[in-house]
């Protein structure tokens, strides 16, 4: 079973680089006293612990990985279909300012920006359906203040502990024809005649562009399929459009189960059932009217 720790850390780094500035701007706007703050430059993000013999430009961010834990409460069946892991990631933020009071406040505000950026967020890039990385922040620590090497400024570290819950859905095998019927070989058998062909959990829509939530291509023979969709809206109401596209014996079909303004809350969409030809993708797409307010979970299930 692969650890995929490199993908997780790379996703975290990319997510921070894309979203931290807007969160810091929001935090700074909430205070009347301005502080000379900025987010780290892209070159000032480092994977690994800081080297005490190297001089760093502040602010700088370091992403270290103390541990990976495999809970495995689900037994052998779960290990055959999905790898569940918890990565412990430590973000070390090096901050610098001319005075003690200023530096302390800058650390508080940067910590708030990082918490707003990452806590309870899925940092998986849009369109990735084979893995999911949900971030929780259980603890934030502040280091002791020290004087920089040139003795002109003060420096201080912020340590943000992350618990990254990583689900890695193994690549499903194609449906195979056998004597006497169809053998469904995929993720998690349900009974004797149906199975989950593809699934995604808590995909976070970080853009207003159309996002591929889930894509699955049936084997050569095609068959009957059912689609289940669940979504939740956070923060404020927004518009949401969800489409399910597939090909049947009559050609290309598109169903639009959701297409209107949605209030804050959770909704389970009525199940969609259809017959799909083989070799053509079944695609679930979603478009949100506002970014960072919609989570979507979906399953494509073979009924053959």
Question: How are the secondary structure elements laid out?
Answer:
Blueprint lengths: L4 H25 L15 E3 L12 E10 L6 H6 E16 L2 H19 L2 E2 L8 E12 L3 E2 L6 E16 L6 E3 L2 E3 L3 E4 L3 E11 L6 E6 L6 E11 L4 E11 L2 E12 L2 E12 L5 E7 L5 E9 L2
Parallel strand pairs: 1-2
Antiparallel strand pairs: 2-3, 3-7, 4-5, 5-7, 6-7, 8-9, 10-11, 11-18, 12-17, 13-16, 13-18, 14-15, 14-17
Helix pairs in contact: 1-3
Structure description:
- The chain is α+β, with helices and mostly antiparallel strands and 304 residues long.
- The protein folds into two domains: 5-168, STM4215-like, CATH 3.30.2000; 172-302, Sandwich (Jelly Rolls).
- It is built from three helices and 18 strands.
- It has helices spanning 5-29, 76-81, 100-118; strands at residues 45-47, 60-69, 82-97, 121-122, 131-142, 146-147, 154-169, 176-178, 181-183, 187-190, 194-204, 211-216, 223-233, 238-248, 251-262, 265-276, 282-288, 294-302.
- Strands 1, 2, 3, 4, 5, 6 and 7 form a seven-stranded mixed beta sheet that branches.
- Strand 14 and strand 15 form a beta hairpin.
- Helix 1 (5-29) crosses helix 3.
- The two termini are 29 Å apart.
- The model is unreliable at 73-82 and 170-193 (pLDDT under 50).
Summary keywords:
single chain, 304 residues, alpha+beta, STM4215-like, Jelly Rolls, 2 domains, 7-stranded mixed sheet, 5-stranded antiparallel sheet, 3 helices, 16% helix, elongated
The CATH topology of the largest domain comes to STM4215-like
- CATH architecture of the largest domain, by name, is 2-Layer Sandwich
* Integer count of domains: 2
The shape, in one word, is: elongated
Report the strand count: 18
Q: Indicate the CATH class of the largest domain.
A: Alpha Beta
**SSE-based structural type:** alpha+beta
Roughly what fraction of the amino acids lie in strands? over 45%
Helix-strand topology string? HEEHEHEEEEEEEEEEEEEEE
